[in-house]
């Protein structure tokens, strides 16, 4: 009799993909868990994955374009549990720090006159747009925090909020 698989998605908004790299280091562990299926992973292929229904959605990156604001809502609609991963997703990341400057000025500083296909906006944490069930802090998060969160969710429990100091010795 086949056991129902728990479907996991890993999505990226505006980010450096560093959190996904941490996740990649867990991939071998995940392969040892027979009832886990990675249904989508933006780092490998980004192709309308947000429409896939998943049990747990891990989201990296801040909402920094109008398109991402829509994307993150779609991911939420299709996920039972949403986990914000890393400083960009949880707090907005470094790209959200210059809130006092006009977006146009920031944009020009970074991209000059480059033409882009998306509509930029001030970077914000994903919780400003959707309900987030759990946060994993860090930039990138510690692998053990990933494992703790995932492992706890997989056994049907709920992870405790991880107190995240500035440095591990603090
Ligand atoms: Fe990269 Fe840090 Fe943002 Fe993760 S939290 S995407 S590691 S900048």
Portion of residues in beta strands equals: 15-25%
Q: Radius of gyration, rounded?
A: 17 Å
Q: What structural category do the secondary elements indicate?
A: alpha/beta
- Shape estimate: globular
Organism: Thermococcus kodakarensis (strain ATCC BAA-918 / JCM 12380 / KOD1)
GO molecular function: iron-sulfur cluster binding; oxidoreductase activity
Keywords: Oxidoreductase
Domain NADH:ubiquinone oxidoreductase-like 20kDa subunit: 16-151
A few lines on this structure:
The chain is of the alpha/beta class and 170 residues long. It has helices at 18-24, 27-31, 66-77, 86-91, 103-111, 143-154, and strands spanning 6-12, 36-41, 54-60, 63-65, 79-85, 120-124, 134-136.
Task: Explain this structure.
By secondary structure, the protein is of the alpha/beta class. Helix content is 30%, strand content 22%. It is built from 6 helices and 7 strands, in the order E-H-H-E-E-E-H-E-H-H-E-E-H. The protein has helices at residues 18-24, 27-31, 66-77, 86-91, 103-111, 143-154; strands at 6-12, 36-41, 54-60, 63-65, 79-85, 120-124, 134-136. The strands form 2 sheets. A 5-stranded parallel beta sheet has the order 2-1-3-5-7, with helices on both faces. A two-stranded antiparallel sheet has the order 4-6. It starts with 5 loop residues before the first strand and ends in a 16-residue tail after the last helix. It binds iron/sulfur cluster (SF4). Iron/sulfur cluster binds next to helix 1 and helix 4. The site of iron/sulfur cluster (SF4) has 12 residues, from helix 1 and helix 4. Residues 16-151 form the NADH:ubiquinone oxidoreductase-like 20kDa subunit domain. GO terms for molecular function: iron-sulfur cluster binding; oxidoreductase activity. This is Cytosolic NiFe-hydrogenase, delta subunit. It comes from Thermococcus kodakarensis (strain ATCC BAA-918 / JCM 12380 / KOD1).
């Amino acid at each position: 009799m086949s056991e129902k698989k728990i479907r996991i998605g890993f999505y990226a908004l505006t980010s450096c993909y560093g959190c996904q790299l941490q996740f990649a280091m867990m991939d071998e562990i995940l392969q040892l868990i027979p009832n886990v299926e990675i249904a989508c992973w933006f780092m490998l292929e980004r192709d309308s994955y947000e429409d896939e229904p998943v049990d747990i959605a891990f989201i990296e990156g801040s909402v920094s374009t109008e398109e991402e604001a829509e994307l993150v809502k779609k991911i939420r609609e299709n996920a039972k549990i949403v986990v914000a991963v890393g400083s960009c997703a949880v707090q907005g990341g470094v790209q959200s720090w210059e809130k006092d400057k006009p977006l146009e000025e920031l944009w020009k500083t970074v991209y000059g006159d480059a033409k882009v296909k998306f509509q930029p906006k001030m970077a914000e944490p994903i919780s400003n747009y959707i309900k987030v069930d759990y946060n994993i802090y860090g930039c990138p998060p510690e692998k053990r925090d990933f494992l703790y969160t995932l492992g706890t969710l997989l056994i049907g429990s709920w992870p405790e909020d991880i107190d995240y100091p500035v440095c591990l010795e603090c």
